[in-house]
Amino acid sequence: MQVTVNGHAAYCYTGGKPFDPAKPTAVMVHGVLNDHSVWGFQSRHLAHHGWNVLAVDLPGHGRSAGDAPQSVEEAADFVVALLRALGVERAALVGHSWGSLIALEAAARLGPAATHLALVGTAYPMKVSPALIEAALNEPEKALRMVNVFSRSSLASPSGAGVWVFGAGMALGRRVLRSNPHVNVFHRGFVACDRYAGAEAAVAALACPVLFALGTQDQMTQPRAAQGLIAAARAAGQDVRVEMLPVGHHQMTEAPEETLAALRRFLGA
Exposed end of the chain (fewer CB within 10 Å): N or C? Predict the structure, then answer.
């Protein structure tokens, strides 16, 4: 589905169902050098079980036009503008990696209009090594290989269906990088992650329950790197739930069933 947001066409995957603002809505936000497709399994299930799903391509990524966000805050503003453009008054926000920070910041801006916040593969601060930032800028193919190795606990398909997940991840990254000939969205996304400093303030402003879905074998956003944010959320009096998944950073494809089950328990779906 195409929606005009801030004067530009934005793409949202609706899980194969028509958009219906009367249904409960879940916005699903991807990470660096990804697009809506990383939520394919989870978004389709929710869409076919009573939910209105908006799995977005962030501006300047995939099928969405506009300038690629230079910060978490800019991306969060896009999410809020998207909901307003569609007339959605209340929504659950789900984000992975960089998308988790975007979802957090958007939920803080929305206040009571955010019904749930699910942070998948999150960390704070989400620091990125200078070597990886430099490689994303000057040697993106090398950086993409590094990320696709570090993001997974296994290069084999969890379904045993013969899917080469490393190759699939490489193909997705190349496609998203090529989708924007004007900006290196790989480098820009990593810099946005590295510079974000607003999580504590955002957590304190939340008015909804928070789920942390973390991979026990995650090398990109290690579980220990989320503990400070979990503690800050609890100290702020938030309703915090933590689910540990026995996989790496790309939970949605490494453990699709388990990730969906965690989301369903949290959302009551």
Answer: N
